[in-house]
């Protein structure tokens, strides 16, 4: 893409009052962004409203700055991955996004741009998951990536980050992305900051993607909008933990609108992070316990050599030494308070707290807000 073409694409996308759907109509009629700006107001009014036509004839104030910023970003190609800008009609543009009513005009991407999406599944969930929820997301990410799927998520704290980490660990293919992160900011910044290293790791094995211009800050209204891309890229959306009012349920609803599968992992009735999943299951979402369930619902056959499903995901078949600890048997897998646990096991407070601390350090128990504890799968 030369500078003139880049400028035309940026100008079209930055024009006030002209969204993705209208821009797509203009491209369909005139053929290219450059051609759009070569026409008169009268010609433009055959496709758009007079107000939109007048806006198209005005050069956006920030266009020059954005052109320089984008050109410099594209010219800076790191040693380990690539920067690219995929526009509508580009052969690299994911075909799955064309099923949206308003596919992005442009996608900023950073990572292994020579690879492709392949079969993909979206994994979404709470930004504040229980310890078991975060562990489950990571295990499912690893198992599904090992089965050859690209794990798509949003790079957020909690379930998103855990799913990406698992996918990076489990990925084996060199033709498809192990994981794809669809972010709600410009790709020249990482949000949240805690995921800076994770973003770098994703660029090495997968892809970072954004429809937002470089320099775009983490604005609250951008994140629900980007969820439609997450839903569209996956054959299905797996919800690990989600409250009743959450962005994860927005993504699940978007997946349904796109005729994608929706899957949910049940949890404790005492955890608010599970209530959204239970609501989805009541509405017909597939109840998922193992990665086999995901592959079955998506009509994908797992490779016979992959055994991560049983080993990593079946919490009732824990084989680590800590699994035989009597206190874990008393805990079960639901969150439990110290008083309730003491009533079950009969230990004095000092002994119980000492054993809980040991199990927590061993990774067998997680500490939740409100003084609750929860057993973790350690197999």
Describe it for me?
It is a single chain. This protein is 43% helix and 13% strand. It is an alpha/beta fold and 379 residues long. It folds into three domains: 1-76, DNA polymerase, domain 1, CATH 1.10.150; 120-313, Rossmann fold; 317-375, Orthogonal Bundle (Arc Repressor Mutant, subunit A), CATH 1.10.10. The strands form two sheets. A nine-stranded mixed beta sheet has the order 1-2-6-5-4-3-7-8-9, sandwiched between helices. Helix 8 links the parallel strand 4 (150-153) and strand 5. Helix 1 crosses helix 6 (63-75) and helix 7 packs parallel to helix 8 (159-170).
Q: Provide the CATH architecture of the largest domain.
A: 3-Layer(aba) Sandwich
- Report strand order across the widest sheet: 1-2-6-5-4-3-7-8-9
Order of helices and strands: HHHHHHEEEHEHEHEHEHEHEHHHEHHEE
Through-space gap between termini: 50 Å
Total discrete domains? 3
Given the structure, what is the number of helices?
17
Shape: elongated
Which strand-content bin applies to the residues? 5-15%
Largest sheet: 9 strands, mixed
Radius of gyration of CA atoms, rounded to a whole number = 24 Å
CATH C-level class of the largest domain is Alpha Beta
In the CATH hierarchy, the third-tier topology of the largest domain is known as Rossmann fold
Mean pLDDT, as a whole number? 90
Strand tally: 12
């Amino acid at each position: 893409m030369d500078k003139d073409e880049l400028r035309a694409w940026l100008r079209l996308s930055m024009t006030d009052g002209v969204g993705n759907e209208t821009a797509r109509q203009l491209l369909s009629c005139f053929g290219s962004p450059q051609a759009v700006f070569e026409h008169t107001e009268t010609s433009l009014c055959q496709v758009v409203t007079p107000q939109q036509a007048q806006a198209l004839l005005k050069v956006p104030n920030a266009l020059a700055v954005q052109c320089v910023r984008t050109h410099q970003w594209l010219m800076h190609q790191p040693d380990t991955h690539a920067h690219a800008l995929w526009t509508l009609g580009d052969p690299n543009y994911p075909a799955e996004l064309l099923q949206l009513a308003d596919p992005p005009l442009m996608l900023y991407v950073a990572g292994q741009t020579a690879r492709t999406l392949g079969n993909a599944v979206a994994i979404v969930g709470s930004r504040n998951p229980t310890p078991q929820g975060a562990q489950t997301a990571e295990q499912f990410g690893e198992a599904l990536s090992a089965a050859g799927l690209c794990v798509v998520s949003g790079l957020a704290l909690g379930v998103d980050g855990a799913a990406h980490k698992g996918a990076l660990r489990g990925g084996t293919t060199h033709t498809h992305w192990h994981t794809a992160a669809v972010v709600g900011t410009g790709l020249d910044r990482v949000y949240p900051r805690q995921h800076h290293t994770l973003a770098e790791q994703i660029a090495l094995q997968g892809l970072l993607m954004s429809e937002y211009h470089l320099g775009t800050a983490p604005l609250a209204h951008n994140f629900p909008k980007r969820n439609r891309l997450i839903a569209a890229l996956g054959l299905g959306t797996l919800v690990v933990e989600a409250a009743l009012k959450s962005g994860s349920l927005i993504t699940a609803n978007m997946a349904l609108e796109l005729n994608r599968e929706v899957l949910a992992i049940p949890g404790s009735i005492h955890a608010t992070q599970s209530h959204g999943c239970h609501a989805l299951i009541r509405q017909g979402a597939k109840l998922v316990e193992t990665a086999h369930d995901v592959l079955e619902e998506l009509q994908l056959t797992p490779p016979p050599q992959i055994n991560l499903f049983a080993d990593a995901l079946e919490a009732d078949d824990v084989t680590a030494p800590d699994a035989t600890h009597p206190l874990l048997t008393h805990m079960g897998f639901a969150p439990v308070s110290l008083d309730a646990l003491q009533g079950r096991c009969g230990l004095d407070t000092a002994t119980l707290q000492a054993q809980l601390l040991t199990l927590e350090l061993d990774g067998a128990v997680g500490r939740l807000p409100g003084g609750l504890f929860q057993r973790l799968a350690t197999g």
